[in-house]
Amino acid sequence: MRADRQGAAEHGHRITAAIACHVARAGGTVNELTQLLLYPDHEGGRHARHIALRSGQARALEYIRRVWASASMASVEVV
Question: Cys-Cys with 75: which of 24, 50, 54, 61 at CB 3.0–4.6 Å?
């Protein structure tokens, strides 16, 4: 992967992880996070939508579940 694409992917992941942490701290669910990230007009979901377009919906959902698992564990540790 080229350096600029790698940087963009890392930036997209950081945004996705931050959104997941906010949803987890607010008491949201993985389903709500998924709806938010895959909603076409939500700028923060660009990374997840790009994964869905490039690698398929199942891969994007798997990615969101992994991010959610990390975020929900982090929100428990913070509380």
Answer: 24
